[in-house]
Amino acid sequence: MLKVIMGIGLPGTGKTTALKSFAEKNSYNYICPDDIRFELLGDASDQTKNREVWQEAYKRLEGFLKNGETVVFDATFVKDLDRKRFIEFVRGLGVEKIQGIVTEVPLDIAYERNRSRERKVPDYAMERMAKSFKELPPEISEGFDSLFYINEFQELVRVEVENELDVAKKEFKIK
C-alpha cells in the first residue's frame, strides 16, 4: 500500500526533529524542501527558486512512490489550500493512505525556538503562518486518513481517524 506521511506545523515546533527520527526508525524515505533548497542553492533559507525546489521535491516523491516506498514529507503545510493540493497530487499518484503528523506547540515556544535556530524564519512570516494555521487547522475532511498530534515534547497527544463509515466504503468499494 502506498503511503505518505505529511509533517504539518510552524517552524520551531520540533516537526523536522520528529519526522527525521520517525523516518529513520521505520526505514521510510524522507523529503524536505529545505534540504533540497540547501542542495540546490547552498542556503536552506533562500526562497528565490521555490518553484524549482518544489518541482524537485515532487520528482523525488514520485520516484519513491513508483518504487512502492513510503515517504515522510516534511513541510509546514500551514495553509489548508497547500495541504489540499498536496493531498490531491499524491492521491493522483495512487497513494492509498495519507497520514498527517501535526506539531501543536504553544506559539511562544515556537517563536523562542525559532529565534535560537541557526536558520531563523522572520517574525512577520511566523505570524502569517500562525494565523493561517489557527484559522484553518488540518482536518480529516481535507483528505487525510488520520491525523496524529504531537506536543512540544514530541509526545502523542491525540489522534483523529477518518470516519469509520468512510473507511468501510473504501474497503468494500461502496459509493
Layout of helices and strands, plus pairs?
Elements: E1 3-8, H1 15-26, E2 29-31, H2 33-41, H3 50-66, E3 71-74, H4 80-92, E4 97-103, H5 107-116, H6 123-135, E5 146-150, E6 156-161, H7 164-171
Parallel strand pairs: 1-3, 1-4, 2-3, 4-5
Antiparallel strand pairs: 5-6
Helix pairs in contact: 2-3
Structural summary, described in words:
By secondary structure, the protein is an alpha/beta fold. It has one domain: P-loop containing nucleotide triphosphate hydrolases (Rossmann fold). Helices cover 47% and strands 18% of the residues. The chain contains 7 helices and 6 strands; from the N terminus they run βαβααβαβααββα. It has a 6-stranded mixed sheet, sandwiched between helices. A hairpin with a 5-residue loop joins strand 5 and strand 6. Helix 2 crosses helix 3. The longest helix has 17 residues.
Estimated radius of gyration: 16 Å
The geometry reads as globular
Got a strand count? 6
Structural class assignment:
alpha/beta
Strand neighbour order, sheet with most strands: 2-3-1-4-5-6
Look up the CATH topology.
Rossmann fold
What value does the average pLDDT take?
A: 91
CATH homologous group name:
P-loop containing nucleotide triphosphate hydrolases
Count, helices? 7
Helix content: 40-55%
Overall number of structural domains: 1
- The poorly predicted ranges are none
**Share of residues in strands:** 15-25%
CATH class: Alpha Beta
CATH architecture: 3-Layer(aba) Sandwich
N-C termini distance: 21 Å
Question: Major sheet, described briefly?
Answer: 6 strands, mixed
User: What string gives the helices and strands in order?
Assistant: EHEHHEHEHHEEH
Quaternary structure = single chain
